Predict the 3D structure of the following.
Amino acid sequence: MAKSRSVRRHVRTEEQKTRDEQLRSKYQTTRPSLADLQRSQEYSTAVTQLECLELMDFVARLKARREALNLSLADVATKSGIDRAAISRLENGQVENPTFGTLKRIAQALNQHLRLVLEDEPAETRSAPR
């Protein structure tokens, strides 16, 4: 029997819809560059495509480890103390910025040690400090 999937409907107020439309119109007219947006300081620091890909790769390795150990999401949830649905969202790329603590707890549940490494950036990717 197939699992049913529930999708939470995103409901926006008229005020939110109006604001979104104004922003859309503004950016379709001015078409600011990423540098322009960062200089404006109206927005949080952008995440580069490389950073996204590195996180996706890391999460894919966590999932592969879980599967290699024949652990279910529920097993990892029990061991890590993190909600099964949250682990699933992480594995499916629905979490943009997981905390170090979350990743560490999942890694520990998979008998892995998570560590941070500081490396020099390749010269071609160096830019102004973010």
